[in-house]
Amino acid sequence: MQVTPAQVLDFYFGTRLDDVAAMRACLDRWFTVDRAFDAAIDAQFGDAVRHALDGGYPEWVDEARPALALVVLLDQLPRNIFRGSGRAFAGDARARTVALQAFEQGHDQVLSLTERIILHMPLEHAEDLALQDRCVAGYEALHAAADPAWHPITSAALKAGYDHRAVIRRFGRFPHRNLLLGRACTAEETAYLAENRSAWGQGAADLEDA
Predict the structure, then answer these.
(1) SS3 state at 173
(2) What does the pLDDT look like over 175-185, one tens digit per residue?
(3) CA 162, 165, 169: angle at the middle one, nearest 5?
(4) Residue 207: pLDDT above 90?
(5) % helix / strand / coil in the chain, to the nearest 5?
(6) Model pTM?
């Protein structure tokens, strides 16, 4: 399947990047567990996601919006298509590399606020405290610079960043991934999971309710 960066980004964000209500609706759609929506994503972009996971689209990394589109294919869409499977995280390492290169090259500076939040997602998903700190610092800067009308979006990003970082500070990894990745849980992780069954769309409660 041939896809363009514009097709990926238009599907993910729509075209009203300067509209707060449109972006809130967009993010609500993406961060709600909906198996029918997951299946629709697989039907439309599954081949492109699998190609990206196999190392495809290397030419996209050198420009801002194509790099963001590649991050979406690697970091966001697999969490829908492969929800409840270890493969949901298969693109994370490459997504981090692409995102960090984009930041180093200043590509984030030409993106919209919501796009910049999504570019931080590979850092938010990292089982690495230094990258978690960098993600939170990025969200704090975006929130501080944002027009107050956008604070519902930046505040939600900040909360997610703080919540993810707190888990990594405590465990050094995301315990809810253990079963999906074939990792044994520690006693502390088992106790934590018993009390925290919902985990950003990939926890036990999320999968039961889908």
Answers:
(1) coil
(2) 999 999 999 99
(3) 135
(4) no
(5) 75, 0, 25
(6) 0.92
